[in-house]
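step: validate -> pass
step: tokenize input -> pass
step: predict -> running
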Amino acid sequence: MDDWTLDRIQRHIAEGLPLVGLFNIDVIEASAECGAVRLRTGDHVTRPGGSVAGPVQFALADVAAYALILAAKHDPAAVTVDLTINFLRPAMTLPLRAEARPLRAGRRLFTADIRITEEASGRLVSQATTTYALS
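step: predict -> pass
step: emit ->
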């Protein structure tokens, strides 16, 4: 079955990546142009001081990129080669939204830009770039 619908991508990620349930991450969009996820509230996603922890934002960026790749390339075996994230300001207000957009979709490598914002204000809190190896 090559039909990678949003529903199929949501199920695939929920079953294959247990961290999405742990961190309260929902896949909300998956197309060849955009993979988007939402980080819902949860005590285990913040650090002392109340901001969203860096590793949680890293996971948010990675899951958004994976949803994008599943929709664009239909490659469940794709793996992260590199992910660089810049934390621009503390993320204090949940939910957060991460949107991954393709920068280059080659035969072997897929590079995406991910922007993480506070959903209520649209305020940019971090930006990441990732490259995945395609199978």
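step: describe -> The chain has one domain: 6-133.
step: cleanup -> pass
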